[in-house]
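Repro:
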Amino acid sequence: MEKTMQKKAGLVNEMQLTLPAISRNEAVARAAVAVFCAQAEPDTTELADIKCAVSEAVTNCIVHAYRHTKGSVYITVSLFADRTVRISIADSGCGIANIAQAREPLFTTDAAGERSGMGFTVMENFMDRLYVSSHQGKGTTVVLVKHLGRAIGEE
């Protein structure tokens, strides 16, 4: 999918970031992605949508992927000439047993009841597309796609 998007839309710029999967880095990830996306001049609503979706995806990695071990969150942000922002957020954690079930509103594996089970629902509502791939014991990748209101560099 990634190579197809690059050829189709014309990759303008790309950023990669790796962070330890610890709680305080959720804000770092959200801010870094927002600052990088600012070069595409999104409007305030688009930028807020991106920040919220990134926050949810990174929080999922931190809370769910590495329950009994330490790990990293891998982020790639790609900006395309056709008004598309593509954000890949991945981990190498425990994986998701049933992606369809995990994407259902209010579903959570949090036995303590501290999580609402709305992470994927929030991501879907703030982005134009959401792709999830996961392999148990190997990790999960969430791809967020947002089409901005005008082409990058358009006046």
